[in-house]
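#struct-help
A.M.: can someone run this one for me? Single chain, 123 residues.
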Amino acid sequence: MIRLHPIAQGFLLLGTIIWSTVLSAQETDSASGLIKAEGWQVVQSTCTECHAALLITQNAGNRAVWESRIRWMQETQGLRLLAVEEEQTILDYLESNYPQKAASRRAVLPAQLMPSNPYEAED
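D.P.: on it. Structure tokens below:
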């Protein structure tokens, strides 16, 4: 068994963690930025007819949210009616690869913890 200096062990561990992160990262399409997973090409060919893929990658939602966005685009933006199988493929892809995110905003501070407003008019 090879014995390594503790610092060398640390670097070896760090290298292993970094390498495993790189290998487990999802592959993205270099042109669109979409995650390459089942259905991505249907999403790319359908959704980027009208808008950039960046609009997809910057958003998130559960299946209902993504479906409501499709309906909104159909009702207001001229998106054609999609074949049932095509829509299901798109929704499966979006739900799996751009899912709903947990809320990232902090809770509102109670009034007693808020600083006084120096510009507030006095009665």
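A.M.: thanks! The longest helix spans residues 6-24.
D.P.: also worth noting: Residues 28-102 form a domain with the Cytochrome Bc1 Complex; Chain D, domain 2 fold (CATH 1.10.760.10).
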